Structures are given as structure tokens and as C-alpha cells.
Amino acid sequence: MEEKNKDNSSLACDIVEGCKTKAKTGSNLISINFFRLFRVMRLVKLLSKGEGIRTLLWTFIKSFQALPYVALLIIMLFFIYAVIGMQVFGKINLKDDTAIHRNNNFQTFPQAVLVLFRSATGEGWQDIMMSCSTNEDVLCDPNSDMTKDCGSNIAFPYFISFYVLCSFLVSS
């Protein structure tokens, strides 16, 4: 019996050594990567034994399937708020000393989406909100048809609700 085990172990060593030498010489007969597959098989064996690990993996897979729906909901939220922002805050004059300037405004749809992305990340959304609210510092764009009251008190519920909804959706 011991003779048989010795033969099996020497055979396994011969196969591994042969594969190593063939891999070194560049032969594509059997690669070392083939044996790495057996490492993955250990994980499958572990998953079959552990009920808790299997439950966690199943939960992860099911939550990963819902990810496109959450992403679509975030895109819809950005689209709706960008269109509303363009209508309400699109005529504010761009000044470099305020939060509404040439790189941060609601005059075009892509710029509005960028402002909302900046607000969703928490990057100075309070300053943007104050620059869009009604006060004497907010001036109308000279190219617009409005001459005064370009800011709006809607800025407060607009930005706060957007920030809260984005935080809720991103955390879920």
C-alpha cells in the first residue's frame, strides 16, 4: 500500500515538474495557470459547507442585480432637477466672485448636470444655493429678457431636497 502511495506522489510530482519545465521552455501543452484553477475549487468547497457565507453571497448577487435600477433612478433625478434648474436659475448673471460663474451655472443642460453633480458630492452646494437665492447680489444676465429678480426663494427647497434625495439614493 505504501508502495502505491509513493508511486502516486512521484507521479504527481513528475506531472507538476513536467508542467513546470514545459512552461519554462514555452510549450503550450499544459500551463501552470491550469493548476491555479484548483485554488478556486477550494472556495467552491468552502461555499458548499458554510451556510452563512452562501447567504451573504446570495444577498450580494441579488443586490447587484438591482444596481441598474438605482442608477437609472439617479439619472432621472439629475435630469429632472437639471431641467428645473435651467428654468429657474438659468438667467442668473455669471460673476467670478460668486458660486455661479462660467464653469458653474445653469445656462445649458450639461452645465446644469455638472452643477448638480458638484452639489450631490457636497462640494460647496450651500454657496451655490445662496448664489441662486433672492438677494441683492444676484443679478440677471444682460442677454436675458429679465432685468431683476433672477434669483428665487425656490433655491432653498430645490437644493436641500436634491441633496437629501441624492444622499438617500447613493446610500441605498
In brief:
With 172 residues, the chain is mainly α.
Task: Report what the structure shows.
- There is one protein chain.
- The chain is mainly α.
- It has helices at about 1-25, 30-50, 50-65, 65-90, 110-120, 125-130, 155-170.
- It has seven helices and no strands.
Break the fold down into its secondary structure elements and pairings.
Elements: H1 2-25, H2 32-49, H3 51-65, H4 67-89, H5 109-120, H6 125-132, H7 155-171
Shape: elongated
Termini gap? 60 Å
Largest sheet: none
Mean pLDDT: 79
CATH architecture annotation name of the domain at 67-171: Orthogonal Bundle
Number of strands: 0
**CATH fold-type name of the domain at 67-171:** Helix Hairpins
User: Which class of secondary structure composition applies to the elements?
Assistant: mainly alpha
CATH class of the domain at 67-171: Mainly Alpha
**Tally of helical runs:** 7
The helix/strand series, from N terminus to C terminus, equals HHHHHHH
The amount of helix comes to 55-70%
Assembly status: single chain
Low-confidence blocks of residues: 1-16
